[in-house]
């Protein structure tokens, strides 16, 4: 299996969403997400998929749901009923992305090789959270700070973590 990268924007209190929506608007983070995931398979839960107005262009969506009758009418989408089924589909890909939500992040974290985390330097009220990272399992490889400006209401930092081999 190729590399599995988990990509997420996460507040200081690990909040990632509320009412199936994002908690902030960070245009530069959207651009980064698009540039990293375009051309790759992206794995997500059903609620994350349903939070998009339509499928993201130039990416194959693998949607995980327990609902065996769930269907979508888009050609670049595959429905599966487990994370294992999703991993089977991406087994021959060089790189695939886990894009959320909270439950999928928790299930997928042990299988990921790289974490691309945008740490949003604020706390938010939320109903979806990112799992806590075990510092003995992950090494911060690089980070890039982005101060708030006229397009970004909060400071944030791009952080890339590499899984430590045991």
From TrEMBL:
CDD domains named in the record: DHFR
Pathways per UniProt: Cofactor biosynthesis; tetrahydrofolate biosynthesis; 5,6,7,8-tetrahydrofolate from 7,8-dihydrofolate: step 1/1
Gene3D superfamilies: Dihydrofolate Reductase, subunit A
EC main group: oxidoreductase
Reaction catalysed by this enzyme: (6S)-5,6,7,8-tetrahydrofolate + NADP(+) = 7,8-dihydrofolate + NADPH + H(+)
Enzyme Commission number, as recorded: 1.5.1.3
Domain of life: Bacteria
Limits of the DHFR domain: 3-163
MF-aspect GO terms: dihydrofolate reductase activity
Keywords: NADP, One-carbon metabolism, Oxidoreductase
Pfam families from the UniProt entry: DHFR_1
Family label: Belongs to the dihydrofolate reductase family.
Described function: Key enzyme in folate metabolism. Catalyzes an essential reaction for de novo glycine and purine synthesis, and for DNA precursor synthesis.
The protein's name in its UniProt record: Dihydrofolate reductase
